[in-house]
Amino acid sequence: MDQATNLRRIVLEQGTKAKKTKTIAVTSGKGGVGKTSLSANLAIALAQTGASVTLLDADLGLANINIIFGIIPKYNLYHVIKGKKSLRDIVIEIPEGIKIIAGASGFYQLANLETKQRNDFINGFASLDADDYMIIDTGAGVSQNVLSFVVASDEVIVVTTPEPTAITDAYGMIKSIAAQAYDKNVKLIVNRVQSVSEGKRVAQRIINIASQFLNIKVENLGFVFDDSVVPKSVRNQKPFIVSYPKSKASGCVSIIADILANRSGGHPERGSGMSSFFKNLMNFSVNKDDEDDLLDDIEESKEEKE
Question: Would you say the pTM of this structure is higher than 0.85?
Answer without folding.
Answer: no
